[in-house]
Every structure is written in C-alpha cells, then in structure tokens.
Amino acid sequence: MPSLRELNLRHLDAVATAARLGSISAASHAMNLSQPALTQAVAKVEALLGHRLLDRQPGGVVVTEAGRLMTGRIEHALAYVAQGGRSVRRGARLPPLPNVERRITLGQLLALMAVDRAGSFALAARHTGLSEPAVHRAARDLEQVLEVPLLARQGRTVQPTAAAARLLRFARLAQAELESGFDELAALHSEGAGRITVGVMPLARAILLPQALARFAGAYPAASVNVVEGPYIEVLAALREGVIDVVVGAMREPLPVADVVQEPLFNDDPVIVGRKGHPLLGEPGLVFQRLLDFPWVIAAPGAPVRRRWEQMFQEQALEPPRPRIECGSVMVVRGLMLEDDWLTLMSRDQFLLEDRAGLLGEIAGAGSSLRRQIGMTTRQDWRPTQLQHEFLSIFRSTCAEWTSGKAMDGQPFRYA
Q1: Which homologous superfamily does the CATH classification assign to the domain defined by 270-370?
Q2: Which of these, 210, 206, 180, 208, lies nearest to 73 by C-alpha position?
C-alpha cells in the first residue's frame, strides 16, 4: 500500500465521483475537469493502490469490489476534510468556501500534523523525510487557503492555534478512513490482514482483554494489534481523532462528549486488598472500623477509584482516612503492598496473578453500590473494517463466557 504522501485528494475525489455517477464524462463535468485528466487521475490512484477500482464499459463505469471498499472510505475522508475546513472558517467568522475539500491537499494536512507532533518545522521535516522549506511551505499554503492562522511560534517551538486544533481532529479522522481503506484492500489479497488499535485505561480488567487478544491473534495471524494504555481523558481524545479504534474500560455516566457511544459488557466490583499475610485476613468477622487502623494507598482526588473509596467510608458513616500515599499506578501499588500492611481498593482481576501466587489477597468486598460497568467505547460515526468487527465480536464473546461461567456479583460483605 502507498504512503499517504503519495496520494492526491483531488485524484481520490475523481475516483469517488466517477464511482458515484457511474460515468467518466459525468464525473469530469461535475469536477470541472477534462475527461482525459479525470481518466488519468483514476489511473494514478489505481496504480498506487495496486487495485482496479472502476471497470470501464461502453455504458459507463462499474465499481469493482476494491472500488466499493475504497470509494466509501474516500467519501468519508473528504467529508471530514470539508467539515474541518468549514469548522475553521466558521470559528474565524469567515464565509464558507465552496468545495473547500477540493482546495486543501493531503500534503498540506500531513505537514500540519507533522508540525503539531514535532513542535517545530525542523523536527517535522526530519520525521517526514521532507525538506524543512517544503514542510513550511505546505503548512503556510494551507493557512492561505483557509485564510486563518494555524501555527504560532512560542519561543523555540511552533504550536497549533485553536483553529488548527479543530482542523487537526478532522485531518486525523480523514487519515484514519484512508488507512482503513488500505487495510480493506490488503484483506482482499491476504485474509485477516489489517490493524486495530485498542485503548485501555489503567484500571481496565487484566484478564479478559488479554484472553480476547490471544484468541484474536490466533484466529487472525496476519492482523496487527496495537494496545495503548492511558488515562481516560487521553484515550478518549485519541479515540475521537481516529488514532484509537475502540476504548476498553469503565464506562462514564454521563458521557463527557456526544460523539461517542458506549456498550456495556460486564459489571466490576471493587474489593479491598492487602498482602497475603495481612492481619485482617486472619479475622473471621471483619469490623469495618478496623480498616482505619492500617495505612491506605489510593489514587489522587478526582480519580474514579478515589471517589468510590471515599464513598465506601461515607456509606458506613465514617470520615475517609488520610491516605498515607496517593498513587494511580497499579504496578507501584502492588509493589508497595508487598512491603507492609497496606490496604487499597482495586478490581479482583487487577491482582489475580498475585492472588494465585499467594502474594495478595481479598480482605472484603467494597459493596454493590460501588459496582461499575466495564464496556467498549467507540466513535458514533466509526465504520469498522471487517477485521475490526471480528475483534469486537471476539471480545464480546470472551466477556459473555466470563459472566456466564463465573459469578460477577462479588463476595458478600465480611464486615461484622
């Protein structure tokens, strides 16, 4: 498959227009191009992609299977570019530009994305393999097209303006659409080829996702899976820009944005955890107040697990103790708890391996009111490839098997 830099948005538009109208002559009229120019544009795209997209026939053109897959992606990518251009102009209170997606080039968008990532024209040039003047010219040409400043110098760095931030989101969505089209074309030659990027929050379940990934990798050895872990706000932003395809983790109610959807998969009950030799594990009937006698390590204020931890004490009419250590890293918390009689609140699956190894143990359930739903979050307008559909199906079935084969209501309170 070609790199995005080799493609021309105008040529891609020619392919999609000819496919939609079923005629080279009609497409040339619609795009204000000569028939030879439009025919040449289609031929260049087909040569770069290595697939025939349109079959020329006496009555017009017929879209091939590769053309059907790719033209759908092209149309959505162009729609994102148009939406980005309109958003930038609207934000600057400028009148809309007709067919703005035909005025913007893919090279200009790629240059803007490269500068945004690198923070300077020099580093952007190094990362893209282009000359620094070429990157600078492409980015500034885009500013002239939209008549809006997109990059501003701040000291030694170059930072995107608010207008550029809006445009960048749609540019990345357009990029994701075209790359999904490449994956679908690759799957025509090699079954199961393609990619999926999964965003995982630090407190997502530690067992079910690895099980699903193992099954998926076994079923689709030609597929590539990228797992990105990060805080909710970061993975959500990457999801909305098309950098991540699906986010797995605790659902949010209400959703902070309107352009994503959530699908619940199972319930998760937080539990109180300590080391296997913890004194509380030897007490037959745990008195809740005893939890105040030991040091706690818990995430900082504002984190979901911190709110549930505070709620657990408040439901017992107790003031939450002052945590001796505030930490959101599961790995650090696990290591700390092995050193002394620390307590924390976490999902059962987060310490399952340590439990099996005889290192950590569940002291008590935290209560059904602290239950949270774990699910998948996707973009509302996401059009998954067939391979991505298969991953979602495998993950759903893995979760369904877990919930049907193991009680998910947690252990009853052991408080005396």
Answers
A1: Periplasmic binding protein-like II (3.40.190.10)
A2: 180
Which DSSP string do the residues of 254-295 spell out, in sequence order? S-SSSSEEEEEEEEE-EEEEEETT-GGGG-SSB-GGGGGGS-
- The domain 193-268+373-405 is placed in CATH, from the list 3.40.190.10, 3.40.50.150, 3.30.930.10, 3.40.50.720, at 3.40.190.10
pLDDT for residue 146 is more than 50: yes
Amino acid letter for position 246: V
pLDDT beyond 50 at 412? no
Identify the helix (H) or strand (E) that includes residue 363. strand 360-365
Q: Which residues contact 285 (CB under 8 A, 6 or more apart)?
A: 414, 415, 416
Top-confidence range, 99-113, 353-367, 397-411: 99-113
What per-residue string of b and e applies to 216-228 under the rule 16 or more CB within 10 Å gives b? beeebeebeeeee
As a whole number, mean pLDDT of residues 393-397 equals 96
Question: Which residues are registered as beta bridge partners of 226?
Answer: 197
pTM: 0.87
Which of 116, 114, 120, 109 lies closest to 145, judged by CA? 109
Q: Which residue would you say has higher pLDDT here, 328 or 162?
A: 162
Q: How far apart are the C-alpha atoms of 245 and 235, rounded to whole Å?
A: 10
DSSP state of 377: E
